[in-house]
Design goal:
about 270 residues, alpha/beta, seven-stranded mixed β-sheet, two-stranded antiparallel sheet, 5 helices
Length: about 270
């Protein structure tokens, strides 16, 4: 039986100085976990993965010729965009769905999921970012891709896309400006939720290292099929290229986090 991979690396031209990340790209589980006690329909929902993001990331990486790292496991198993000490790392209930395979859970199983899935993914992200930095000879531009539901608990989310961030504005402000320039979409700034989350992917790999970055969310109904993905690739690819051409987005500079001091700070 082929071993279940925690991540996939899409190779690209590291000298371009850009890398794409997709924390919630897939809805897969190893066979040994079955369906975590859930109905199969749960794995078609946002609780299992970010709908449309795998296709969007693959096509953008191909169009731009840059590397990407994709998580291969469902966030129902363990969420790679959470810190190891985050109580929502392994969810017992997600958007009303009780996850029998996650409760009760032993300390041994918790550590197994960290060691087998979460940590290898982050090790791959760390290595890929370092490789791009070494080949490009300066700080890479890191762009993380996610999607969100059109409504939450009955409240519509009008934004077509949104940019989440903490305090490092270098890539964020020009990204928002370029997205709004066409005038045909509503772009959220730290909507529908705040981008400052201690020990998440951007905090861990970019904020703490002073690497320019942005997390882009696209509403999932806009990228739920091939035509939608293609349209957003056409929209985003030239914007990402323009950002990557900005010299100020290839310098290291550590910004303070709104979540509090970094672990090495007093």
């Amino acid at each position: 039986m082929q071993e279940f991979e925690s991540h996939e690396i899409i190779e690209g031209d590291d000298t371009k100085g850009m890398i794409l990340l997709a924390d919630h790209a897939m809805n897969r589980l190893p066979e040994s976990y079955g369906s975590l006690g859930l109905d199969a329909s749960a794995f078609k929902r946002h609780i299992a993965y970010d709908i449309g993001i795998e296709g969007l990331t693959r096509q953008l990486a191909s169009r731009l010729g840059v590397p990407a790292v994709l998580s291969c496991f469902s966030r129902l198993l363990i969420d790679p965009n959470r810190g190891e000490d985050d109580p929502t790392l392994i969810m017992k209930i997600s958007d009303g769905a009780i996850i029998p395979g996650n409760y009760p859970i032993s300390d041994e199983e918790w550590q197994h999921r960290l060691n087998r899935f979460h940590r290898p993914y982050h090790h791959a992200v760390d290595q890929a970012i370092s490789k791009v930095a070494a080949k490009a000879g300066n700080a890479p531009l890191v762009l993380s891709l996610h999607s969100y539901t059109p409504a939450w608990k009955g409240t519509p989310r009008p934004w077509h896309a949104a940019v989440l961030w903490d305090t490092d504005h270098r890539a964020v402000h020009p990204l928002i400006a370029h997205l709004r320039e066409a005038g045909d979409i509503l772009v959220g700034d730290n909507e529908p939720y705040d981008g400052a989350l201690k020990n998440d992917t951007m905090y861990r790999h970019c904020m703490m290292r002073g690497i320019p970055h942005a997390l882009l969310e696209v509403r999932q109904d806009l990228i739920g099929d091939d035509n939608g993905i293609a349209a957003w690739v056409d929209r985003l690819a030239p914007i990402f290229e323009t950002l990557n051409d900005r010299p100020e987005l290839h310098h290291y500079s550590i910004f303070p986090s709104r979540t509090g001091p970094y672990p090495s700070e007093p």
